[in-house]
Amino acid sequence: MKKVYVNDTNQATIICPECGFEKNIDVTDYKDTQKNLKAKCKCGKIHQFIIEFRKKYRKHVRLPGEYIIQKSRDKGEVIIKELSLTGIRFESLKPHQISLDDILEMRFILDNLLRTEIHKFAKVIWVKDRIVGACFSETELYSQALGFYMKT
User: Fold this and answer.
1) How far does CA 109 lie from the centroid of its chain?
2) Separation CA 65–CA 137 (nearest Å)
3) How far apart are CA 139 and CA 76, in angstroms?
4) How far is CA 24 from CA 5, 20, 78, 113, in A?
C-alpha cells in the first residue's frame, strides 16, 4: 500500500497510480483515526493508501538493547525494532512492568562501523503486550551519532 505523508498544515498529496492525477486533501479529520484510506480518482480507479503523520523518518532496525524503569529500577533486555531521532519502538524479551508515561533509561549499540553506544531517556507513549513505543526526552541535546546513523 502506498504511504502518503502529511505536511505541517495537515495536507496530503494523493497521486493516482493509474493515471498520475494529483490532488491535495485536508486530512485533519483522520489524525486520530485509522490511517488506511481509499480514494476514487476522476479516472474511476479506486486505490488504497496509508496516511503518515510522523514528522521524522523511522528506520527499521534489529538492535539489542536494555531499559531501566526510572521509578522502580526494574530492567530488562529488548530488541529495538524501529528508531527515529525522536523515538523508539522495541520488544521486551521477557514479560515486563513498563506502563504508560514511565520514563525509561535506554541503552543500545548501533550496528555502524564505530558500534556507537546510545544512552537516552524516553517516555513511554504506548504499550501492547511486549511491544513498547516511547519518545525521547525533549530536554536532551540532539545526538549527532544517532542523526548520522539515521541517514545511512
Assistant:
1) 18
2) 18
3) 24
4) 11, 13, 40, 42
Q: With 60 as the cut, is the pLDDT of residue 123 above it? A: yes
CA 51, chain centre distance (Å): 13
CB-CB contact of 12 with 28 (8 Å): no
CA dihedral of residues 120, 94, 58, 85 (deg, nearest 10): 0
Per the prediction, the chain carries an average pLDDT of 87
Residue 139 has pLDDT above 60, yes or no: no
Across 12-26, 53-67, 115-129, the highest mean pLDDT is recorded for 115-129
Taking residues 110-118, report their average pLDDT: 91
The enclosing H or E element of 24 equals: strand 22-26
Q: Which residues pair with 105 in a beta bridge?
A: 68, 121
Task: Report strand pairing: 46-52 vs 103-109.
Answer: unpaired
pTM exceeds 0.70, yes or no:
no
